[in-house]
Amino acid sequence: MPLSHQQWLRQRLFVLGSLVLGSLFFLVVREGTLDRLQLICLIKDRLSPACASGQIPLHALQHKQALRLKLHRRNSTREQLQMHHLIKQLPRAIIIGVRKGGTRALLEMLSLHPDVVTASQEVHFFDNDLSYACGVDWYLKNMPFSFPNQITIEKSPAYFITEEVPERIFKMNSSIKLLLIVREPTTRAVSDYTQVLKGKEHKNKTYDKFEELVIDTNTCEVNTKYKAVQTSIYTKYLEHWLKFFPIEQFHIVDGDRLITDPLPELKMVEQFLNLPSQISQYNLYFNATRGFFCLRFNFMFNKCLVGSKGRIHPNVNPSIKAKLERFFHPFNQKFYQITGRTFNWP
Ligand SMILES: *[C@@H]1O[C@H](CO)[C@@H](O)[C@H](O)[C@H]1NC(C)=O
Ligand SMILES: *[C@@H]1O[C@H](CO)[C@@H](O)[C@H](O)[C@H]1NC(C)=O
Ligand SMILES: *[C@@H]1O[C@H](CO)[C@@H](O)[C@H](O)[C@H]1NC(C)=O
Ligand SMILES: *[C@@H]1O[C@H](CO)[C@@H](O)[C@H](O)[C@H]1NC(C)=O
């Protein structure tokens, strides 16, 4: 007996309805488990608030997307195409410092390389006791997603001057590569001071003049207790690092040159990291308004470093500047000797 039109319609609706309900049920169950999983993780994190993990800088992968497309268009091997799987990896290289040496610029410029993924924020794992107590799992959780063939790099400038850090990094990976970016020590000290000064001005607070901080009024000599002076004595900190790592595991980047002529410096870093030479002049264009290089990831996506970088330094009394330069001179000589890289610092 043929079905009436109404019956036929009812049957169809029943099938359709079941499908919809089934799908909904599936989704609810699935989301439910996801939520519960997330809850468990949240509770775990809440046990120790310091161990809450940071955000995931997925936007950093924006230009990696373009690379993936390129690989598709090319005659890529199966292996190359399997790179769709995003994972988190411990850093193969760390930019350990130095503060105001150009660590942010270096990190951003290295992120131009298709095989490099960078942690967008300073992780401060090895220099912060609370974070360090969370363990390497926490460190890994704070790394960005990457493809298996890429390497992850993070930067935390405080690592260089924090006593516990070299040993802690050594315990994680004794063959890790270490990048140290330095600037002419007096310039760096002024830049260090300027950053603190701007912070104070922002809060409407007054701050001593550079000259007052940098000179010990009792002796009229350089005040070696002032942190901005100490940090510029690169050799002192490097020698401590060398108790754990051989000098071959370090690469020194010229922070002054990275600003005026970045490409040769980046080529040397690529070589040190055993990466194919990929960053080219195309990726770096000079912005005359800013007086600084901007980064071009691809024809659509470019990025200029934020405004606080490259801020104007106060004028420093020339005789005090000369005094500082004389003070740093012997330490600089030692630094050249240890690293095998000579700069034309005063
Ligand atoms: C793609 O790769 C295969 C195997 O490597 C090769 O035989 C073929 O010629 C390639 N095709 C193109 C267009 O390059
Ligand atoms: C340690 O770092 C080196 C250099 O980047 C890398 O080749 C090696 O795979 C790393 N080892 C571990 C266990 O991550
Ligand atoms: C700083 O001072 C200026 C002018 O005296 C005032 O307009 C501003 O709100 C103050 N800012 C803060 C953060 O107190
Ligand atoms: C150059 O820098 C200025 C000032 O920061 C900015 O407004 C402009 O968009 C930049 N131009 C390019 C091409 O990046």
From TrEMBL:
Keywords: Disulfide bond, Glycoprotein, Golgi apparatus, Membrane, Signal-anchor, Transferase, Transmembrane, Transmembrane helix. InterPro entries: NST/OST, P-loop_NTPase, Sulfotransferase_dom. It catalyses: alpha-D-glucosaminyl-[heparan sulfate](n) + 3'-phosphoadenylyl sulfate = 3-sulfo-alpha-D-glucosaminyl-[heparan sulfate](n) + adenosine 3',5'-bisphosphate + H(+). GO terms for molecular function: [heparan sulfate]-glucosamine 3-sulfotransferase activity. One of its GO terms (cellular component) is Golgi membrane. Its EC number is 2.8.2.-. It holds the Pfam family Sulfotransfer_1. Transmembrane segments: none annotated. It is an enzyme of class 2 (transferase). It is a single-pass type II membrane protein. Its main location: Golgi. It comes from the Eukaryota. It is found in: Golgi apparatus membrane. Signal peptide: none annotated. Belongs to the sulfotransferase 1 family. This is Sulfotransferase. It comes from Cirrhinus molitorella. The lineage of its organism: Eukaryota, Metazoa, Chordata, Craniata, Vertebrata.
